[in-house]
Amino acid sequence: MAERTVRRHETEGEIMGDWFQTIVDIEATPGEARGLAANILDWLIADGFVSAERTDCVLGADAGHAPGTRYGEAVEDEDPGLADVWSNGLRVTVGRTVFDAGQGEPSAVTCPHCAAETPLVDEHWSLIEETWALFGGAVNSWAEGHDEPVACPSCGRTAPVHTWLWADDCFAFGHLGFTFWNWPTLRPEFVGDFSRRLGGHRTVLVEGKL
Questions:
Q1: Which end of the chain is more exposed for a tag (fewer CB within 10 A), N or C?
Q2: Where are the beta strands (DSSP E) in the chain?
Q3: 158 by DSSP, 3-state: which?
């Protein structure tokens, strides 16, 4: 068996972790998520973007789908070394999940009622603990089935945490997500195809690293 390696990005001597891009359907209901996942996977396999066989090629799951013969058409710049990276596949997640960007902190969140932006970090990019306390519990409990409302510091009106707008798409709340591990930047046209094939559902692209 060929030796497998884990992708590392090195910047100024710092070793960075695995990079991922997750396309999240934020409108899929629990009842339709599994069927939509199957439809998308059929398309990705048929068009050669991913392989049909499920193998040990993703983080956070037993198996995923490795890049297919035409994966390069889904990304901005094809990486010839991707095939040698262990965590290089697609993971499909079905179920109520808070999809997040991994490392780093969300910079701000916007109220769905009054559109006021609430900063979550200070000028030094340190988390503002007292402000995050308004949202943190609700974020953590959403995956467990709770729609905990959060009151806006500006207008005072409440809204479930999943309806707030998170800066830089650092969070997405949904029942269906497609995570591409260590792929180069996905082409906007490829990401747009997901929305169309999901019946016009709105999607959010969450990018991050571990």
A1: N
A2: 9-11, 14-16, 19-25, 50-55, 64-67, 90-100, 108-110, 117-119, 149-151, 158-160, 165-166, 171-181, 203-209
A3: strand
Q: β-pairing, 117-119 with 171-181?
A: unpaired
Q: Are 120 and 134 in contact (CB under 8 A)?
A: no
Category of 177 on φ-ψ map: left (φ > 0), alpha (ψ -120 to 50) or beta: beta
Helix axes 188-197, 33-46, angle to 10 degrees: 130
Do β-strands 203-209 and 19-25 pair in parallel, antiparallel, or remain unpaired? Answer: antiparallel
Q: Is residue 7 part of a domain?
A: no
Cα–Cα distance, 48 to 200 (Å, whole number): 23
* Residue from 185, 189, 170, 187 nearest 24 by CA: 170
Residue 141 lies in a domain: yes
For the stretch 24-64, pLDDT in tens is: 999 999 999 999 999 999 999 999 999 999 999 999 878 99
Residues 198 and 157 in one domain: no
Which of left, alpha, beta for 179 (phi over 0: left; psi -120 to 50: alpha)? beta
- Give the global pTM: 0.87
